[in-house]
Amino acid sequence: MLKISGKVLTVCRKTTPALRTSAARDFFEILRMMNLYSEDHHNKTNQEYFLNGNLVEFVGLDQPQKKRGSKRSWLWLNEANEFTYEDYFQLLIRTTEKIVFDYNPSDEYHWIYDKVLTRGDCELIKSNYRDNPFLEKALIDEIERLQFEDENYWKIYGLGEIGKAKQLIYSNWSFIDEFPESVDEIVYGIDFGFNNPSVLLKIGVKDRDNLFLDQRIYQRQLTNSQFIELLKEEIPDELRDKRIKADSAEPDRIEEIKQAGFNIEGVEKKEVKKGIDRLKRKKLFVTRVSIDVEKELKSYKWKQDKDGRILDEPLKFNDHSMDALRYGYEALEGDEPSIRFL
Length: 342
Prior knowledge:
This protein is of the alpha/beta class. It has three domains: about 10-125, Rossmann fold; about 130-165, no CATH class; about 175-335, Nucleotidyltransferase, domain 5 (2-Layer Sandwich). It is built from eleven helices and 15 strands. The protein has helices spanning about 15-20, 25-35, 85-90, 110-115, 135-150, 150-160, 225-235, 250-260, 270-280, 290-295, 320-335; strands at about 10-15, 40-45, 50, 55-60, 70-75, 95-100, 175, 185-190, 200-205, 210-220, 245, 265, 285, 300-305, 310-315. The strands form three sheets. It has a seven-stranded mixed β-sheet, sandwiched between helices. A six-stranded mixed β-sheet has the order 2-3-4-1-5-6. A two-stranded antiparallel ribbon has the order 14-15. The protein is globular. It starts with 7 loop residues before the first strand and ends in a 9-residue tail after the last helix. About 30% of the residues are buried. Residues about 335-340 have low confidence and may be disordered.
């Protein structure tokens, strides 16, 4: 809780949807748990909250002018390795007192290491999953499994050490500013989760070999009813006839979504390696707001055995949008009448 009145604290993440479902949600849940929340102090339109005379504002940088906004006393960069150095610099010069970063050291090279950690006024506080008393057991189990499955991922996500990217699966991707207005076909891919995120990925195909990827939902702790409400927000009426492909291992969830008016079908899990090989022959274009897709692309890798030999099987960790991509694309590839050139 802030102790000094009259301060402005900016909580910032690369995109507004990611901020809304992470730091902002946690902030308001904690206020309610502590009986500190008041509707009168919450400006939902501007994403601001007044606490003990201090202003807490939530800002996503998907609106470029935001980084050049008014000054603040304190700044918190949530998932700081998502930001570019230019993002950070524009926020830095408008912050008068303190900046706090949080991030996973999953990048082998990053401006944080060279331009922030080397400063004399920077303090590094290194923690790992054991320091989080609120982490769900399912996520703890998933992290601890890495000790036996991938030394590098265990180093990053288990111990909080800087990792090195090895044997990444996809290198055939680049950024685009926004999803193109005209494509030959659109399909949506879904990967279901609860403790893991539920994902909705919009996939566009253009000129046979170009796939455009746009992250629409990437959120944990969603019931199927909540997920359906988000689907209604993210898939407009004019696109309701577009096909949605999801993991057929969740037939009850698929049927409930179908009953809500969506054109959804289950996709049988084909051999994963073959699906990946087909996608590696395409050009993938990722919208810049798809930050979780970007993270997964940068860490999606082949398994290795204890002797370091590469196996024909991807490591099952942080692969939720990668699964959604494969479901959507495999459905397109097998659908000759709708998209003949694939």
